Amino acid sequence: MKGVVVVTLIAAVLFCGLAVANPPIQEPKQYEQFCEHQLVSGTGYVDTAVSIVDKKIALEYYDMMSGNGDLEMDSTHVYSQEPDKLKRDLPNCSENGTGVTEKALNLFENTKLTYDGSVTKTPLSGGKFINSKRFYGGIDAQVQEMFSVNQMEKDQTTYFGSTNNSSITHTVGLNTLNSFNGTWGTDASMHKIFYKDIKSHEMFSGDFEIQKEIKFHEAPIPDEDTKCPCEGVDC
């Protein structure tokens, strides 16, 4: 019997203490971009990997998979330090939280995939990892996907924003609709040293249909100008 799971995880952090807020990252004047789109249909060995690491916008992204079977895939990876040059529709990201709306992004990925390894008896294995790295000005939020499946149908969108011109500044998100036979799961976390720790882990093994959204967001409130704490004191 096929299981059906619908999961939504949304963490929104709105800071009242401006001193700990993360200001948006400024776009480089000489910005950089990357775009890859592929349509694949066939039978045989599959081995793909994409990695994007950009310290200037606090982005770490890895996507990889391998298998041997029947594959159909329509996949797009687009990355831009200047989000005004990268505008895409995102599901469930409108002002009222429903529908589809266009957003200016630093990273957009969409993969529509069908895989069947029943003839070769070889699973499709892989994973995805996206991180807004705190050390480089991000919000220390990350989402990871892992899978090893004999059959899969997937429509998945991953998105990221961190810079000033992004309409989803300081946001990490994944939206997926999966039907699979095998093992599939996600880990998500957001950490603030000494006072915040959010974690989510799920793993499903069997025959499932899953609709899931994970999104972390921190309101990019700039630091408030404050006086030196030692002003007027001989210290």
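Second entry:
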Amino acid sequence: MISSTSLLYPDAFLSPLAIDEAVHRALDEDLGRAGDITSLATIPEATKAQAILVARQSGVIAGLPLAVATLQKLSPDIEVRAHVRDAARVTRGQQVLTISGPARAILTAERTALNFVGRLSGVATLTADYVARTEGTKMRICCTRKTTPGLRALEKYAVRCGGGFNHRFGLDDAILIKDNHIAVAGGIRPVLERARARAGHLVKIEIEVDTLAQLREVLDTALADAVLLDNMDLATLREAVRMTEGRLALEASGSVTPDSIAAIAATGVDYASAGALTHSAPNFDCALDIGM
């Protein structure tokens, strides 16, 4: 029997506490007050079963620690053997997990386990597609806070499994000054001065700009660590890179799609953030096949 932590991708840490919380919440949602009344009514308690989790499409797998935790939460007697690790590329029809143990528990866990793997593998697979399109450039692909409520840590983990990088996790781990902050604070210089006065020495400050004139103003203050270039066309992105001369990090945002990502990377920006990695990733098709 394996532990869920043995499936963790070494460069994409996911807290065991986040796994436990997510599994508990998902099973509570599915089991309700009376449990799996179908399996309880139709499967004798002592029945054993074997099952295989199979990929029904090619892509990048993620979420196996959650599938294992879901199964073993319902029965510690379930044994699982992993054929791949999270972040591995799989092909259609490939076996991912072999499962054996009490049949009731396997059947009860089936949909919740598949939901985790399907959702997170979908995010990882889409991220890997973006990353592949920027091969040979320095640019990093980042996710955003446009995540499913309650699943942010899991979805950002899946982005890392796909070869992407994480933007901030929440409002508390970096200062990101958006256009509305600038408007309320009275301009770029005053908002940056206030941010710098409050920021700890390890807290980065990023500010969003819409024009090259705003970028010049940010550069003149020398108070920001990074600039988010919002919805700029390719020519403007290239000019922003030229103006900045490496003095701070540049992040392209807005209209970042699979079709545009290679051209954005070629402009020389350091990062591109795409909310689509998490809010628009298709579900990865996988199944649990029972074989007594």
